[in-house]
Amino acid sequence: MTLTERKRLTEHVSDRITELEKVFANDDPLAVKKQRQSDDAAADMDLTIHAPINDKIMQNHQQELALLKQSFTWLNSDHAGYCDQCGSEIPVARLMAALGSRLCLSCAETKNS
Question: Rounded distance, CA 73 to CA 75, Å?
Answer without folding.
Answer: 6
